[in-house]
Structure formats: C-alpha cells, structure tokens
Write a structure and sequence with these properties.
The protein is α+β, with helices and mostly antiparallel strands. The chain is built from twelve helices and 15 strands. The protein has two domains: 125 residues, Aminopeptidase (3-Layer(aba) Sandwich); 140 residues, Gcn5-related N-acetyltransferase (GNAT) (Aminopeptidase, 3-Layer(aba) Sandwich), CATH 3.40.630. The longest helix has 16 residues.
Length: 292
C-alpha cells in the first residue's frame, strides 16, 4: 500500500531506519529538511520502503524536482521491481513536471530506456593504502608521488571561507547557484560540522589556500560534496593532494569514498584515476517519462 504523507506526519525514526538499508545520506530527514523547504514522503507498507518527494509549485502546478546538493533520491528500504513500478507510476500520475534522480539500487533493478543514466564514481577505501594506491592509474600514481615533494599544509576551515573561495575563483560557475542555494550549502556544511559528520579541508602552499573540499561522512561513506580550486591550485594539483590526504587518513576507517559524479568526461577521467568505479543512477524527466 502506498501512503503519501506530509513532512510533519512522517515518523522520523521509522523513516531513517528504513533508509539505513541503502546507507544513503540524501534520504535522511535532517538532510532533506535542509536541501528542500517542502518535501513530502511516499511510504510503502508501513515503512517497508519510502520515497522522498521534493515538491515545489509554479503557477499552481506541482513539480517534482531534484534539490541542489542532493544527487540521488528514489525508493529506499526493502523493495522489488513491482514496488518500484508502483512508485514510479504514482509520481507519473500525480506530477505534471518531473526532474528527478533515482538511486543506483533503483536504476540497477529497474533500468528502462525512458530513464537516462548519469555517472557517479565511488572508491573502496576499506583496505590499506598500498592496496588502494595500486589501483591508481599510472599518471595519477606519478602525480601523487610528486606531490609528496611539495610543502603542502592542511587547514580546517569554516563554511563561509569555502563559499567565499569558490566565488572568488570560479566566477563563471558562480551564477549557476542562486543566493538561496549558497544559504542551503552554508547550512548543510555548518550542520554537518556541528554534528561531527562534516569536515572542510584547505590545501595551503606558502600560506596561500589553493584548494578546498567539504567532506560529509555518514554510514561509512564519505561524500565529496563541494570543492573549489584556484588557478594556481589547478597547476599545483591541490585537489589531488586533498583527496589523497583524505584517503591516507581514512583508509580502513571508512568503506567508500563517493566522488558525487560525474557525467562530464574530464571530471570522470579525473576520478577514475584513483581507481573509482562508476555506479550509474537514473534521471527521470516528465516529458519522456510514462509508466503504463
């Protein structure tokens, strides 16, 4: 049985226990509350499975959308192909416009041609560093070794420092995010750090910040949620340094490093250099989505 619940009617404990099965941060109630001001939930068979639905209205039309900083949603918990079909059919009937991402587990089980695919690279870091390093592509291995000769230092930073650094060094990308999106990002980083599940690291060379990464850690997975790099940082490979530093300090402690992308070829190539594997997820758009 499918039951649509308003946010205030959702049992947070049962919802979050249900989403634990896929160990995905995006479906947690605290995370959804930050990235979506108005989300509702589809509950299947008394929290056997759940489906978060971020909703907004435009000229009176309900739109199902994918929030910023929330890569994958879809159905979580215990489900089969039949349950997925029921859920996808439900949203197709109840939303006029859909721009929504379904998670890897949904896409793997229910991969239909009408869903476009998106790439997400993940790296197993549950083993020792030597084993992880053996998986590096040759040029990545050489680059990382060269970085050890540079006098990089690591510094913990505040959320606003990362946002300001991004705005200063990514002017072409700055307008891709609205003022509200920056506020959401700040709140997400601050909440994560306050609750000991987030870290912002900056790579410095000669006291100058060259690159920064916000890591969110949950359920034995570390998500590379946001990053920024200066022009000099690209030349000095600051992001390579920060990722390798994280692997060195979290090997065997965390199961997976989730790079959060990417379908952009050069970014995918960069992440694959660490030995990361592609775990594809699905993208639903209303104009091409119709479940019979």
């Amino acid at each position: 049985m499918l039951t649509l619940l308003k946010r205030e009617d959702i049992n947070e404990k049962l919802w979050n226990l249900c989403t634990d099965k896929q160990m995905c941060i995006y479906a947690k109630t605290w995370y959804l509350d930050i990235v979506s001001s108005n989300w509702i939930g589809l509950v299947i068979n008394d929290y056997q499975a759940v489906m978060p639905l971020p909703v907004r209205k435009k000229i009176g039309i309900n739109i199902l959308y994918q929030p910023y900083f929330c890569q994958q949603l879809g159905v979580f918990g215990v489900f089969d192909e039949k349950i997925l079909h029921q859920c996808f059919k439900y949203i197709d009937r109840h939303f006029f416009i859909i721009n929504y991402h379904i998670n890897f587990f949904n896409y793997k089980l229910y991969n239909v041609k009408k869903f476009s695919k998106k790439a997400n690279y993940r790296l197993d870091i549950s083993t020792d560093y030597q084993t992880i390093e053996n998986g590096f592509r040759k040029e990545k291995f050489v680059n990382i070794k060269q970085l050890s000769k540079k006098e990089f230092t690591i510094e913990n930073c505040e959320p606003q420092t990362l946002i300001d650094f991004f705005v200063a060094h990514h002017p072409k990308n700055m307008t891709l995010l609205s003022k509200q999106s920056y506020q959401i990002l700040h709140k997400l980083m601050a909440n994560s750090i306050e609750n000991n599940r987030g870290k912002i690291f900056a790579a410095k060379l000669s006291s100058e910040i060259l690159g920064m990464i916000f890591w969110l850690i949950s359920e034995n997975t570390a998500y590379l949620l946001f990053s920024a790099v200066s022009e000099l940082g690209r030349k000095e490979q600051a992001i390579n340094f920060l990722i390798n530093h994280f692997i060195l300090n979290h090997q065997k402690q965390i199961l997976t490093l989730d790079f959060e992308g990417s379908s952009i070829p050069n970014i995918a190539f960069f992440y694959k250099g660490f030995g990361a594997l592609n775990y594809e997820y699905g993208h639903i758009k209303k104009k091409i989505f119709n479940i019979n």
